[in-house]
Design brief:
Order of helices and strands: EHEEEHEH
Distance between the termini: 25 Å
Largest sheet: 3 strands, parallel
Oligomer: single chain
Number of helices: 3
Helix content: 25-40%
């Protein structure tokens, strides 16, 4: 099985939902969730709270659902921009929950 981690691919493919079609769907066994944003100096990417970066997470979640994905997703807590690790995690978790309900639940 493989791990799909769109955040890690941000600087290479921008993790467009269409890119997921290149992966063998029956081999995706886990998905890491974190966001990334372009650095203000234009020199690459940095971690961002979920929903505040360039990753199209709604598209990613819809593609996983469409393709019959039924394993786990894990919120990765690499972003530390909210002052403390705990607050950064809270904000990323809130962003992830909002993404799963926007514009409607992904049922």
């Amino acid at each position: 099985m493989l791990n799909w981690d769109p955040g890690n691919a941000a600087d290479r493919v921008r993790s467009l939902p269409g890119w997921i079609h290149l992966l063998p769907k029956d081999r995706i066994g886990h998905c890491h969730c974190k966001d990334a944003a372009k650095k203000s100096d234009g020199g690459g990417y940095q971690w961002a709270a979920m929903g505040r970066g360039i990753i199209d997470w709604v598209g990613q979640f819809k593609a996983l659902k469409r393709d019959g994905y039924h394993f786990a997703v894990s919120l990765e807590t690499h972003w530390r921009g909210a002052g403390t690790p705990e607050e950064s995690t809270r904000q990323s978790w809130a962003g992830m929950k909002k993404l799963c309900k926007w514009p409607e639940p992904l049922r």
